[in-house]
Every structure is written in structure tokens, then in C-alpha cells.
Write a structure and sequence with these properties.
The complex is a heterodimer of chains A (590) and B (247).
Chain A lengths: L1 E10 L3 H13 L5 E5 L15 E2 L8 H11 L6 H20 L14 E2 L9 E2 L5 H13 L5 E5 L1 E9 L2 E9 L4 E12 L20 H9 L3 E2 L4 E7 L10 H4 L3 E3 L29 H13 L4 E3 L2 E7 L4 H8 L1 H11 L8 E10 L2 E3 L11 E3 L4 E2 L12 H20 L8 H17 L9 H15 L3 E2 L1 H17 L14 H25 L8 E2 L7 H4 L1 E7 L5 E7 L16 H8 L1
Parallel strand pairs in A: 1-2, 1-9, 2-6, 9-17, 16-18, 19-20
Antiparallel strand pairs in A: 3-5, 4-5, 7-8, 8-9, 10-16, 10-21, 11-15, 12-14, 13-14, 14-15, 21-22
Helix pairs in contact in A: 1-4, 1-10, 2-3, 3-10, 5-14, 8-9, 12-13, 12-14, 13-14
Chain B lengths: L3 E8 L9 E8 L6 H12 L18 E4 L2 E4 L13 E4 L6 E3 L2 E2 L2 H9 L21 H8 L9 H4 L2 H5 L6 H11 L7 H8 L4 H4 L5 H5 L6 H21 L6
Parallel strand pairs in B: 1-5
Antiparallel strand pairs in B: 1-2, 3-4, 3-5, 6-7
Helix pairs in contact in B: 2-6, 6-10
Classes of the chains: A alpha/beta (590), B alpha+beta (247).
């Protein structure tokens, strides 16, 4: 078996991974750093982010306001020390990207332009038209090419973390092109593999978002945090689940029900005004907007479409010029996938699974409880996002915590000797298990797609916008059954060359673990907070649940939940209010 | 299952096959299904060994470029009904070595991207504390379309010059070089010019403009190549006339 060594190894080459790799190279150019990714880095899902990246830069705004918006938006489940670090470092990180060439949209005088975004009291969202993630990822990728010290394993799939005496010492990975198995050892491993939207049937997430890093950490003994908090974005295109950015509402788009009525006014989100009002109506937070959709549906005020109920996103009054300059991708996507021109027609939309607030439990420097293991980006839960992430906070999060994890891992790895031979036994065992999987030829008769679709349905029915204890219990049992059926999944594909069916089988196995952790965390949390709404426990219960869920994998593979108190610094838990009454309440919260 | 359409898909497994062959599958013909949806239907229900790349399914990650009825296309943005009643021929991107079925090797393309130094080059970098480089919307507009390239390589599959001369840097790499050359923050144009003018490939481009025609993101690589040739020619003439001060 081939063995390689790097001081620091990144798993995942999206925004967080690339930023972390560059941070390592800058902190200590002598360190040997590598990025292993199951896709070429510029294919990573950061590429699909549209609306923008929040960071305080304009006069009249303040770090405290950004922090307050983030904490109240997260329904007080965010760790406030992490949020304070985040809002403080976000501006310099976005500026650094500007210096690296990111084509940010500009004011007429050449300064960075900002736009409004949901749940944000000030305009502070930097944007590159409506392809912000695409431009950020390509800027990072192209800038990384300058650092010849950064090695890459493009199209390699990590199957396991190597852990010895409580320390992570590398990974086992498969080169997809050849099917060759290799131990890639390292003194520090940073997981930057993104989210897990594909555990659901209807998601904005790309095909690659299968929770790999979460499952790798979970299996290695690290806890996952706040896994019950999954964000439904209120405006996805029916059938495909393609995202229509929140920027469409920030630029003035309206949400209308079947009567052409701006229904959000009925859900404590403020009064409708012709122009967008910050932290109000269409610029409310995503959890509340997605919940309002369900209520409208129950009242029979949604529109029946070929793929179920929808509401309308109306941009017609914005005019062609604004749509072309600020929202060109929205127009392109609607024309291509819905055959609709938003300049002249309303866009049918419905809530769609978008983002995982939870993830691998890390501290403020990206360190997990497992020595040598770090995580950053959507795969991690620091937590700045609490029970509901605000739009445009995830892109700066990639940079701030990617850089922090990179620096911390570089420091940890500096001066350490390469891992000794002890971990090779583990690597060889994993290699044997991979060989066995490659040889599975349709045994047992289970198909990957069948189990995957079953799992996705169970997740949508139980860990959706509204949840109940009984549905969650049912789903937990069902997922256990799927875990038992999983070993019978065989492969049609007998080749070692680019065997994507083998990869899909590994991904399904990861997703089943992640799904179980989500269901169990949701079942245990007997309250409603942010994106976790329990019909059987409709109120927020700070007494018992002003705490993060930490879910561990037991010996038998089942999830076990513990709690960790939220860190409060300057913003004691308050009421979460949007629209007209928000002003007064915010002043009171101070 | 209602109306169907036939996909004729290239199959190739190097350990087994001497050369690629073609296999036909029938898939449902649905109004909102793309060619990629058809391929996924086959993989999920019928034949798990069919091999292709895809990820975002919204035309932005650049993974799923293939030849569809002989034209290079993003399969996630190419609808099946446009080819009704079929059959639809789906093949790997032209001019690239096949790894397996519809998957091609892209390491040569990746090396070309890196070779043009696609990052901001400056004599002196501004400190972060001094804030952003000012760049007006007009200055942004000058290079913006070149920054839209998603590296899907469809332009390479359409480029007759690349087909004949694999050493040619190719449309996307040259457009990317131009994206930085024309960025008001960058000072690396001369460095990139000397890299690109090392190979005669660029002179082989006769401005057929196929690359621009097929680009799914409305980038104009052909325009970039023409600009490059003009600059390179000027430099060359300057070098002849004033060998002491052509820099």
C-alpha cells in the first residue's frame, strides 16, 4: 500500500478548504500542505452560492449590529464569542479576497457595493452580481495555484480518518481514476467537505453534498453539534430545487400567495411597503419565511403546481435593467429551467433544504475535541449560526474560520514528526474493506438509489419544517432498518477505473449515519427554536435547551445526545422580533 | 411509463475494451428532464456502471460537459425534448483522452490554466489596512465577461486548433489570462504574454470563433485570442524596431 505524508491535510477543496490551505502556506511556508478533494476544487459547491457575503464596511454600520442580527437570527443558539470574532474578521477576509482579484460589484466611485439581505438591519452584504460564491471560489482556486507548496489530490475520495491514541494522523483515500487505495498520513487534518443536503429529496445542494466530513468525524469519535437545525430556503424552483437567491427579495421582490397577496404580513414580519424594508417582510429570516409557507399551504392559499404547492416570487416591478445588472443568474436560471422570464412573469417557488447549521463540533479555532482534527465551513459547527443562519453569513464564515483552522492546524503540526508505523495496520484494514466493497457484485439485490430515496423520504417526513416526536421516532426506526439493509447493496460496476457507483455507495453509507444523528438530535430537543419547530413543543425553552446538542456515535453505531451550554457574552436571550416592533425591542436588548 | 427517448451512450472500460462502443438505453421523455436526468435515470434504475461526472445540475460547476449529437454541451442545461423523437447520441468531450465511458482526462487543461498565472500580479501589494483597490463599474465591465468562465472545457471540444495541436493553450486559458490582464488591479500582462507567445499555437487560431459560439456562459474566448495576437504582434514589431527598449 502506498503511503504519503503531509504536515497538514485538507479534506475538501471548496471555499473553506482553499482558504485554509493558503493560510497554512502563509503561516509557515516550510510546511507541506495538501488538499484532497473528490472533485476538482473549482467544481466544489461554494460555486453555487449566489447572493453575497456579509461584512461591516460602510459608515453607519457597526460590528455590534452585525453580531446582534446574527445572534437574534440564530434564536440565541449561537456562541457569542464566536460571533464576535466572526463579525470582526469578516471585513478583512472579504477585503483580502478583493486584493486577490475577486470581482466584487462596485459603487460608481469604485468602492465596494453592498446590498440588503434577510434578517440584516443594515446593508452590509458584499456581492459579485448574483454569482458571489462562483467568483469567490474561482478567485481562491486561481490564487491557490500561485502557491506551488500546496499539493493536490484531485478526484480522490476519503473513506476513513486514521486515529491512533486519540490523535488523528491522516486518512485512507481512493484515487477515483484508478481505484488505487492510499494512506495519506498527516499531523493535522482539516475537514472542509461542506454540508449534507442530499439526505433530503428536495435540496438546493449539489450531488456531492453527502455529509462525508460529518460522517468521517462522527465515526472517528468526534461529536456532531446541533444536527437538528437544517435550513429550508424559502425560494427554490419546483422539481429541480435550484436556488433563487434571497438577493431577489433584497432587491425588492415580493412573495405572493394565490390571491396575489403579500402573505408575510400575516406572520408577524411587519407591514408591506412598496420598497424593501430591512429586517421586515420579504427581508425576514429564512426559517420564519419557510414556516409561513407551510401555514399558507394549510390555509389553502398556495398555488397548485405540477410538483406540489408553490407561491410566487414577483420581480416584475423591478424592471429589466435592475434584473440584468443585479440578478442576471436568476433570470438565466428561470429561463433555462422554468421557461419563465422574471421580467414579465412571476416565479413559482417553494421552500427547499439549503443549509446545515449543525456540523462537526469545533471551538473558535476550528479544533474538534479529537487532537489533530479540525473543521471549517458548512461541515463544522462553531457555532455562529445557531438555530438559523442568516443569508450571506456562510460565505464570510468559510473565510474567517477556514483561515482560523488553517492557522491553528499549522501551529499544531509545526515541528511534529511524521506519524509512525502504528497507524499503517489500520490503513491496511481499511484497504481490505475497500477491496471487499469493490468486489460486491449485485449481492443481496439492494440498489443504492432505492435505499437513498427511502432515506430521503423519511427525512422529509420527519425532520422537515415542522416536526413531531412520533414522526421522528418512526424515522429513527426506519433509518435503523435502512442501516441493516445497507450491507446488501451491491455494485453493477466491476471496474476499478472511475467507479462512481463505489463512491455513491460510500456516500450513501455516510448519509445514513448523518441522517440518524439528525433525527436523534431533533427527537431529543423538546422545544421550538429557529429552524427546529416541534408541533408537540411549540415554545422556546431556555431553561433546558439554551444548549447545543452534541451527538456521539455509540459502539453499536447508534446516536447518543448530550448538551453543552451556549456561550453568552453581551446579548442575553431575548425575544426574536421582525418588522415594526423590532426597533423598540432591539433598543431594549441594548 | 409513457413516451420514451433513446440515448446512445459511449461505453468504455479500459481494463476490458480495446476501443469505445455504443450502448442504447430508453429513458422517459419528460418536459423538464435534461440529458443529465436521463443519464441519472439509467444509473439509478438500470445500469449502475454507467460513468459520468456531474454535481451542481444548475450550469455553474462545469462538471458535466459532453458531446450531445455531436455538439459540446453542458448536459444539465440541455433538455431531452429538444432532441425528440431521438435518438440522442451522448459521447465524451471531443479532443480529450477518455478515462471511462463519458469521463475524460482533464489534467492537461488544469496545467494550462495554471500556466497562464491566473492570479493578481503586482509589483507592490497594497496593505489590507489601506482598504480596497478602487475599481469603477466601467473598469469591472472591461474584464467581467472573461471572469464568467466555469472551466467546463466545452470550448476546447469545439476548437479545431486544439484538436490538431494539443500544445495550444486553448480558448479558456487564454480568456482567463485576459481576465487578469484587463483587470485594473493587475500588472502581470507582460509576464503572461511571454508565456503565451512561447508556443505558436495562438497563431494557428484563424478566428473561426467556434469557442465563443458554444460557450454556455457567453464568454468570448475568440475575442481574447484576437486581442492577444494583436498585442503579441505589436510587441514583436517593437522588439524588431527597438531592441533596446521593447520592455
Amino acid at each position: 500500500m502506498d503511503v504519503s505524508f503531509h504536515d497538514v491535510l485538507l479534506v475538501g477543496g471548496g471555499g473553506a478548504g482553499l482558504r485554509a490551505a493558503i493560510a497554512v502556506a502563509e503561516v509557515n511556508p516550510k510546511l507541506n500542505v495538501a488538499v484532497v478533494s473528490k472533485v476538482y476544487p473549482m467544481r466544489s459547491h461554494t460555486v453555487s452560492a449566489e447572493g453575497g457575503a456579509a461584512a461591516v464596511i460602510k459608515p453607519g454600520d457597526s460590528l455590534d449590529e452585525h453580531a446582534y442580527d446574527t445572534i437574534s437570527g440564530g434564536d440565541w443558539l449561537s456562541d457569542q464569542d464566536a460571533v464576535e470574532a466572526f463579525v470582526q474578521e469578516a471585513p478583512e477576509e472579504l477585503l483580502r479576497l478583493e486584493h486577490w482579484g475577486c470581482p466584487w460589484s462596485r459603487e460608481p466611485d469604485g468602492h465596494i457595493a453592498v446590498r440588503a439581505f434577510g434578517g440584516m438591519k443594515k446593508m452590509r452584504t458584499w456581492f459579485a452580481a448574483d454569482k458571489t460564491g462562483f467568483h469567490m471560489l474561482h478567485t481562491l482556486f486561481q490564487t491557490m495555484l500561485k502557491y506551488t507548496a500546496i499539493a493536490r489530490y484531485d478526484e480522490w475520495f476519503v473513506t476513513k480518518l486514521l486515529v491512533d491514541e486519540g490523535r488523528v494522523k491522516g486518512v485512507v483515500a481512493v484515487e477515483i481514476m484508478s481505484g488505487r487505495v492510499q494512506a495519506i498520513t498527516a499531523n493535522a487534518v482539516i475537514l472542509c467537505t461542506g454540508g449534507c443536503g442530499r439526505v433530503y429529496p428536495f435540496t438546493t445542494n449539489a450531488n456531492i453534498k453527502t455529509g462525508d466530513g460529518m460522517a468521517l468525524a462522527y465515526r472517528a469519535g468526534a461529536p456532531l453539534k446541533d444536527m437538528e437545525f437544517i435550513q429550508y430556503h424559502p425560494t427554490g424552483l419546483p422539481f429541480t430545487g435550484i436556488l433563487i437567491t434571497e438577493a431577489a427579495r433584497a432587491e425588492g421582490g415580493w412573495m405572493l400567495n394565490k390571491d396575489g397577496y403579500r402573505y408575510l404580513q400575516d406572520y408577524n414580519l411587519g407591514k408591506p411597503e412598496p420598497k424593501p424594508v430591512l429586517r421586515s417582510m420579504e427581508l425576514g429570516p429564512r426559517d420564519r419565511l419557510s414556516q409561513a409557507f407551510v401555514k399558507e399551504m394549510e390555509k389553502g392559499r398556495t398555488i397548485d403546481g405540477p410538483y406540489g404547492p408553490v407561491v410566487h416570487l414577483d420581480l416584475r416591478h423591478l424592471g429589466e435593467k435592475l434584473i440584468n445588472t443585479k440578478l442576471p443568474f436568476v433570470r438565466e436560471l428561470c429561463l433555462k429551467y422554468e421557461n419563465i422570464d422574471p421580467v414579465k412573469e412571476m416565479i413559482p417557488v417553494r421552500p427547499v433544504v439549503h443549509y446545515m447549521m449543525g456540523g462537526v463540533h469545533t471551538d473558535i479555532n476550528g479544533a474538534t475535541p479529537l487532537a489533530g482534527l479540525y473543521a471549517a465551513g458548512e461541515v463544522a459547527c462553531v457555532s455562529i449560526n445557531g438555530a438559523n443562519r442568516l443569508g450571506s453569513n456562510s460565505l464570510p464564515e468559510l473565510l474567517v474560520f477556514g483561515a482560523r483552522a488553517g492557522r491553528a492546524a499549522a501551529e499544531y503540526a509545526s515541528g511534529r514528526k511524521p506519524p509512525d508505523g502504528a497507524i499503517l495496520a489500520q490503513a491496511l484494514e481499511e484497504e481490505r474493506s475497500i477491496e471487499e466493497q469493490f468486489l460486491r457484485r449485485g449481492q443481496g439485490g439492494e440498489r443504492i438509489a432505492a435505499i437513498r430515496e427511502d432515506m430521503q423520504k423519511a427525512m422529509e417526513n420527519s425532520v422537515g419544517i415542522y416536526r413531531t416526536g412520533s414522526a421522528l421516532q418512526e424515522a429513527g426506526k426506519h433509518l435503523r432498518e435502512l442501516q441493516e439493509r445497507f450491507p446488501n447493496v451491491g455494485l453493477d460496476d466491476r471496474s476499478r477505473t472511475f467507479n462512481t457507483e463505489f463512491i455513491a455507495r460510500c456516500e450513501l453509507s455516510f448519509m445514513l449515519d448523518v441522517a440518524e444523528s439528525m433525527v436523534e438530535s431533533a427527537l431529543r430537543r423538546q422545544e421550538s427554536r429557529g429552524a427546529h419547530q416541534r408541533i408537540d413543543f411549540p415554545a422556546r425553552e431556555d431553561q433546558n435547551y439554551l444548549a447545543h446538542s452534541l451527538v456521539y456515535r455509540s459502539q453499536e453505531g447508534t446516536p447518543r445526545v448530550e448538551y453543552l451550554p451556549v456561550k453568552i457574552t453581551r446579548w442575553p436571550p431575548g425575544q426574536r422580533v421582525y418588522g415594526a416592533s423590532a426597533e423598540a425591542s432591539q433598543a431594549k436588548a441594548g | 411509463m409513457g413516451e420514451t427517448i433513446e440515448l446512445e451512450v459511449t461505453r468504455y472500460t479500459p481494463e476490458r475494451d480495446r476501443e469505445p462502443s455504443r450502448q442504447t438505453y430508453a429513458v422517459p421523455l419528460r418536459k423538464d428532464w435534461t440529458v443529465l436526468d436521463g443519464l441519472n435515470h439509467i444509473k439509478d434504475r438500470e445500469d449502475g456502471s454507467l460513468t459520468f461526472r456531474w454535481s451542481c445540475r444548475m450550469g455553474i460547476c462545469g462538471s458535466c460537459g459532453m458531446m450531445v449529437n455531436g455538439e459540446p454541451k453542458l448536459t444539465c442545461a440541455t433538455f431531452l425534448f429538444r432532441y425528440a423523437p431521438g435518438p440522442v447520441r451522448v459521447e465524451p468531450l471531443r479532443y480529450f483522452p477518455i478515462i471511462r465511458d463519458l469521463v475524460v482526462a482533464i489534467n492537461d487543461f488544469m496545467a494550462k490554466l495554471q500556466a497562464v498565472k491566473p492570479w493578481i500580479i503586482r509589483e507592490e501589494e497594497k496593505a489590507l489596512a489601506e482598504g480596497e483597490y478602487l475599481q469603477t463599474p466601467q473598469q469591472l465591465e472591461v474584464y467581467k465577461q472573461y471572469s464568467m468562465c466555469i472551466n467546463c472545457m466545452i470550448c476546447y471540444a469545439a476548437c479545431p486548433v486544439y484538436g490538431l495541436d494539443p500544445l495550444f493553450a486553448g480558448p479558456a486559458a487564454i480568456a482567463l489570462a485576459q481576465r487578469y490582464n484587463m483587470d485594473s488591479r493587475d500588472q502581470g500582462a507582460a509576464e503572461r504574454l511571454s508565456i503565451l507567445s512561447q508556443h505558436e499555437g495562438i497563431w494557428g487560431c484563424t478566428f473561426v470563433g467556434e469557442c465563443t459560439k458554444v460557450c454556455p456562459k457567453q464568454v468570448d474566448p475568440a475575442g481574447a485570442i484576437q486581442q492577444y495576437k494583436l498585442t503579441a504582434a505589436k510587441k514583436w514589431i517593437q522588439g524588431l524596431l527597438m531592441p533596446w527598449g521593447a520592455k
